[in-house]
Write a structure and sequence with these properties.
The structure holds 2 protein chains of 2 kinds. By secondary structure, chain A is α+β, with helices and mostly antiparallel strands. Chain A has 2 domains: 76 residues, Ubiquitin-like (UB roll); 67 residues, [2Fe-2S]-binding domain (DNA polymerase, domain 1), CATH 1.10.150. Chain A is 30% helix and 16% strand. Chain A has 5 helices and 5 strands, in the order E-E-H-E-E-E-H-H-H-H. A 5-stranded mixed beta sheet of chain A has the order 2-1-5-3-4, with helices on both faces. In chain A, helix 2 crosses helix 5. The longest helix of chain A has 14 residues. Chain A starts with a strand and ends in an 11-residue tail after the last helix. By secondary structure, chain B is an alpha+beta fold. Chain B has 11 helices and 14 strands. Chain B has a 5-stranded antiparallel beta sheet. In chain B, strands 11-12-13-14 form a 4-stranded antiparallel beta sheet, sandwiched between helices. In chain B, helix 3 runs antiparallel to helix 4. The longest helix of chain B is centred in the C-terminal third of the chain and has 19 residues. The chains are: A alpha+beta, B alpha+beta.
Chain lengths: 161, 263
């Protein structure tokens, strides 16, 4: 076992892990931050997306020991300080951007990374950016609509296709 | 996953030393290796993470005008920082996998793994790049030796890849939407002294140069020049996504599109 120390959602976190322990497992099992979901085990679905040093990564495809010393942000850090939903989360609720909700943590973390780099994306850019986030309810249209709305753009013309 | 120790060297010299341990395996971004380990298709005793080696990070230009990319440089950085100097290469990097994969996966890892459907090997081969390791420099033409096989020795690490910059180049990728790997992709690079065409995703021997197309395009750089060329489907990968004949057909189509994009 190796001890790892990192900052998770602004707080110091540490724990003993095996070499093979995934960052996603460390967050879920050691820190009990179960908002980061594990959907596929093949690095394709994106339900486990978190931010490591500001970059979106798949927490199921990074070892916990590789995150030693890193600044990690998970879905649990996304709400506003008073506990209310942040802009992206609120937009997902307003535009019915989730059905079963399993993919939602990864979708919100990816959306947040996208809007940081590209505050006013086009619909095509949103869809391209979400290449690695799979929604098996196939609710993509409203997910894209929610992200467009969260970016402050008018989505009234984005009719269901 | 079977368990393993993890070493995190901070210099190339320490990495080479760590790789001397029994059953040691280097890992760069891990975007292929970690899924492989999860599937228990590999069982190293020691995983040597190359992520913490500062001297393998980043992009620069050498005296010969080549763009030199550290082996540990992630795709997202190449997509951004190579865009002005070598847009075709940056465009390729920008379309590997998905954004989260591009924030971890590295050029050295992709080239060393030589997946028969990987994107980077096509750019390396078509550009006539040089692969720099901890021990030597290897020309792209001598590097790729077949599916998942390269000239790298046991414990040898790609520290840098040096790309000569063509007059113009284009990477045309027919994506397999589930894996986001190319089903077939073609990289066309036009230099003052000729054209190089590399094909990935198609052959059972991995990335290869399509020399007939190179000869035709070196004389007449137009999509018409390759319109009549045919590739035999035997020796091409056949799977549930497409037969060997289908992939052979796609090579011609992708090559024409790449040339048309540059004309």
């Amino acid at each position: 076992m190796t001890q790892v120390k990192m900052t998770v959602n602004g707080k110091a976190a540490s724990g003993d892990v095996e070499g093979r322990t995934l960052l996603a497992s460390f967050l879920r099992d050691n820190l009990k931050l179960t908002g980061t979901h594990i959907g596929c085990d093949t690095s394709q679905c994106g339900a486990c997306v978190v931010h490591v040093n500001g970059e979106a990564v798949k927490a199921c495809t990074m070892l916990a020991v590789e995150a030693d010393g890193a600044d990690v942000k998970t879905i649990e850090s996304m709400a506003n300080a008073d506990g209310s939903l942040n802009t992206i989360q609120q937009a997902f609720q307003d535009h019915h951007g989730l059905q079963c909700g399993f993919c939602t943590p990864g979708m919100v973390m990816s959306a947040s990374a996208l809007l940081k780099d590209n505050p006013k994306p086009t619909v095509a850019e949103v869809r391209h950016y979400l290449d690695g986030n799979i929604c098996r309810c196939t609710g993509y249209h409203n997910i894209v609509k929610a992200i467009m709305a969260a970016s402050g753009q008018d989505v009234s013309a984005l009719a269901a296709e | 996953m079977y368990n393993f120790d993890v070493e995190k060297p901070t210099s190339i010299a320490d990495a080479v030393k760590a790789l001397g341990r029994e059953e040691a395996q280097p890992m760069s971004g891990g975007q292929t290796l970690i899924p492989t380990l999860k599937a228990r298709l590999a069982m190293p005793s020691v995983l040597v993470s190359l992520k913490g080696i500062a001297e393998m990070q980043g992009i620069c230009t050498d005296d010969a005008g080549r763009i030199c990319i550290g082996g540990g440089t992630v795709h997202a950085v190449v997509a951004k920082e190579a865009a002005a100097q070598y847009p075709a290469l940056a465009g390729l990097a920008a379309r590997i996998g998905d954004p989260a994969v591009r924030n971890r996966g590295t050029i050295g890892g992709s080239v060393a793994n030589n997946d028969p459907s990987a994107c980077y090997p096509a750019a390396v081969l078509a550009s006539g790049a040089t692969i720099v390791t901890n021990a030597r420099e290897i020309a792209a033409d001598d590097f790729f030796e077949g599916m998942f096989a390269t000239a790298l020795d046991e414990g040898e690490i790609i520290t840098e890849v040096k790309f000569p910059i063509p007059e113009k180049a284009h990477y045309e990728k027919f994506i397999q939407p589930a894996s986001r790997f190319p089903l077939v992709a073609v990289y066309v690079a036009k230099f003052a002294d000729g054209v190089r065409v590399a094909v990935t995703g198609a052959s059972e021997n991995g990335v290869f140069r399509w020399t007939e197309a190179e000869d035709a395009l070196s004389g007449n750089f137009s999509a018409d020049a390759v319109a009549g060329l045919k590739i035999d489907g035997s020796g091409m990968i056949g799977d549930l996504h497409g037969t060997g004949d289908y992939r052979a057909h796609l090579i011609g189509v992708m090559t024409k599109r790449a040339v048309a994009a540059l004309a």
